[in-house]
Design a protein that fits this description.
- The chain is an all-alpha fold.
- It has 14 helices and no strands.
- Helix 4 runs antiparallel to helix 5 and helix 11 packs antiparallel against helix 12.
- The longest helix is centred in the middle third of the chain and has 33 residues.
- The two termini are 29 Å apart.
- The mean pLDDT is 84.
Amino acid sequence: LELSLPRLKLMRKPIFGIGGLQVLLSTAGLGVAAYFFQDSSWRSAVIIGAALALSSTAVGLQLLSERKELNSDHGRLAFAILLFQDLAAIPLLAAIPLLGGVATGDDPSRAMAIAKAVGAIALLVIGGRLLLRELFKRIARLEMPEVFTATALLVVLGSAWLLQMVGLSAGLGAFIAGVILADSEFRHELESQIQPFEGLLLGLFFMAVGMSIDLRYVIDHPTVIVLGVLALMTIKFAILFALGKGPGKLDTRGALLLGGVLALGGEFAFVVFGEAQRAGLIDNERRNLLTAVVGLSMALTPLLLM
């Protein structure tokens, strides 16, 4: 819901310039590391690098808010980078089933699959904007907040189902629905309606992620996981510090704080790894490793900032 078009236009230089550079450089650096140290194919290395390049919006914004740094120079730049990362998640989630089909080679009508995927996304974006505006105008006249909330949830679930039907990620459909809702005039009303559920569902999400980590694997491979966390946070921190000092024009302290807040992995990575495993791009053992690495980087970030 943060992805409104006016905000994107207002902050387009830091979002698409610095945010784009951060995702590109982090994907390259982390993808190369995955390729050489995890014996990955180039397809899985690209997906792993791109997933690890994304930082946690939930943790990052919460830390900046608690420290009252959202309106500081590094806080605004961090927010811009996080917005671009959210945008980058759309093509990343769309690419996983297609790359999985290329890797396994068991889809003879690959061009048709791509056409169906692109057509479904176009239908959702164009049709959604036209139909949803009229739908929510009619529901707003009822002045029943419960119906408003239920309709928003139905739109998200319907979008997820549509894209899953054409072989894409349900998470991608839900995410695009959120972006469409953010572009409507009812965005603020929606935000206020879902506020009571936000913390609860976010907590449930992270609990589900924690329960999906194979603790036996973590205990059996502590060295690999620690090295993975160090590699992830060091590579991202170095890139973020350089971008903050260079095009971001931050002072040294601001660049250090920017790197500290965004060097962690993100919640989108968990979704990406699950989809990549289903598409045959990574195996279960690698997913366990990557999930543990991202989870530990999230736990370490508040301590490192302190």
